[in-house]
Amino acid sequence: MKRWECQQCGFVYDEAEGWEEENIPPGTKWEDIPDDWTCPDCGAAKADFVMVEL
Amino acid sequence: MTHRTVIVGAGIAGVSAAAALRSAGYDGTIDLIGQEPELPYRRPPVSKEIVRGDKSADEIRIKKAEWYEQQGIGLRLGASVVGLDVDARAVRLSEGDPLLYDHLLLATGGRARSPWQAAGVRTLRGLADVPRLKDELAAKKAVVIVGAGLIGSEIAASARGLGCDVTLLETASLPLPRLLPPELGQMYVDLHRAEGTDLHTGVMVSSIEDHDGQTDVRAVDGRTWTAPVVVVAVGMDPHVELAEVAGIVIASPADGGGIVVDDRGRTSAPGVFAAGDVANQPNGVLGGRHRVEHWQGAQNHGTAVGKVMAGGDDAFVEVPWCWSDQYGANLQVAGWPEGSHDMVVHGSIADRDFIAYLLDDGVVRGAVSIGRPRDVRSARAWIGDHARLDEVLEPSA
Questions:
Q1: Which residues of A touch B63 (CB under 8 A)?
Q2: ipTM of the predicted structure?
Q3: End-to-end CA distance of chain B
Q4: Each residue of B158-210: pLDDT tens digit?
Q5: What is the CATH code of the structural domain delimited by B114-232?
Q6: Burial of B215 by CB count in 10 Å (0-12 exposed, 13-18 middle, 19+ buried)?
Q7: For the whole model, what pTM was predicted?
Q8: Topology (CATH level 3) of domain B328-392
Q9: What is the domain partition of chain B in residue ranges?
Q10: By the CB < 8 Å criterion, does A43 face chain B?
């Protein structure tokens, strides 16, 4: 399970937790999230996220 | 007859409104007019990745050029609006025929305030301001920055990261005075100093003048700092002139300035709306009115007003939220933490891993965090709900 951070605002997508608000279930891998998904906080593109070690 | 919408301002508020109109099924015309010659771009990275040279302009576009075509949005870039006739419902451009509208959105943003005109003075608002300053920072020139608000602080961090000698001057007693309570302002004093930025607070600048190829920044108490480059970052003035000349109600500077709108983004003129940094809007959480100068506020306000223009009727209520990156630390601020409140801190401010809740009589009014974006997200909802911290916090937190 990996975590991905929005380089614009700092929002973190955690694969283990998913993102319930948009019906992305826990365990959803980053590559399985649609390419047109945007940061729930600031609207930045999926491409603006980088993998982070936390 | 085809419905005509004209949007003046192609920043995030204007683009978001155009997108919201189309998402809501609006099928009339949309003309989106941008003063800058640039394909619309995200402004937050300008004082960070862009001025540091870590990203190119094409990496921060809001949408690709094709998107505007696909959405049937007529993008007019590098165009100046020179007149507005609210009776004839016409917008006059510097060139070509007037654009007639049924709905007009003023999303004109603002300009960097610049009380000083010396040759060494730079301001930073848009991409056009970048090339010269970026080259100067890349050449490791010494720089004096006037104003330790968000933009000044971020430029200081960017310039230090490039190896410049940086002096940062602030009128208030602490940096980020409009954003942070004193305890947390002090954290930024420590951070700037630890990173080698020469921060001076309580400095009231009286003049900035060129002097033998350098520029002198003089304070009222006689202290003077000299550098080849001086960045003035003392806030922005909203672009209200077009509305003002057209007779639309404008807020006084004491009330925050800007174009007065209601909770649906409507101005005093029929069919004319305003959104984003330029809009003086009702504060749907605390009451009163305010003008919000943050990315997310402009984006969501543009979206909300776009929906109203498409026939919706939802009021816009939002808790302000912003972030800042300085020296690699991601700061997030929600609500209204800057006043004098009680503060409850979870985590460690010294380690820059914390969230601080700012309370009025136990009710969450603001939150400030480094490194805990999810907690800030919860806090935003609590602030909007007037929640009491002791009732919403999990006991284990």
A1: none
A2: 0.78
A3: 59
A4: 999 999 999 999 999 999 998 999 889 999 999 999 999 999 999 999 999 99
A5: 3.50.50.60
A6: buried
A7: 0.93
A8: Enolase-like; domain 1 (3.30.390)
A9: 4-111+236-309, 114-232, 328-392
A10: yes
